[in-house]
């Protein structure tokens, strides 16, 4: 299975970021897919709509799912060699929790970033 980076296609900021990843970070078009959650069979990937609305998802070649900052790290590790060290750094025990705090802040405020719209707001927490 080709790894896939799954993002919220209803979010303008997420779509712009995914486009940047596709154009600038992937070493080749077949290294991994970058797809909006709305275009995929999420169940076949072991994902739910809620997971994809809440955070970026990475489904590895082995089917393992990583979310949020871990998805960013896995994507960077599979990207051009110049950004791979950043992916490894994000997985370090002292860095990963901090990266999670930053990721959650950005996710909560993504509607305020360039390209963000009201559709980018996270769904209310039940």
Structure description:
This protein has 126 residues and is of the alpha+beta class. It has one domain (4-120). Helix content is 43%, strand content 11%. The chain has a four-stranded mixed β-sheet with strand order 2-1-3-4. The longest helix is centred in the N-terminal third of the chain and has 14 residues, at 12-25. The mean pLDDT is 93. It comes from Janibacter melonis. InterPro entries: DCC1-like (IPR007263). GO terms for molecular function: protein-disulfide reductase activity. This is DUF393 domain-containing protein.
What is the total number of structural domains?
Answer: 1
Tell me the β content. 5-15%
Strand order of the largest sheet: 2-1-3-4
Shape annotation: globular
Unreliable stretches covering 5 or more consecutive residues: none
Organism: Janibacter melonis
Pfam families: DCC1-like
GO molecular function: protein-disulfide reductase activity
InterPro entries: DCC1-like
Entry summary:
The chain is 43% helix and 11% strand. With 126 residues, the protein is α+β, with helices and mostly antiparallel strands.
Secondary-structure blueprint:
Blueprint: E1 4-7, H1 12-25, E2 33-36, H2 42-45, H3 49-54, E3 57-59, E4 65-67, H4 68-77, H5 84-90, H6 96-108
Parallel strand pairs: 1-2
Antiparallel strand pairs: 1-3, 3-4
Helix pairs in contact: 4-5
List the main descriptive attributes of the protein structure presented here.
single chain; 126 residues; alpha+beta; 4-stranded mixed β-sheet; 6 helices; 4 strands; 11% strand; globular; DCC1-like; DUF393 domain-containing protein
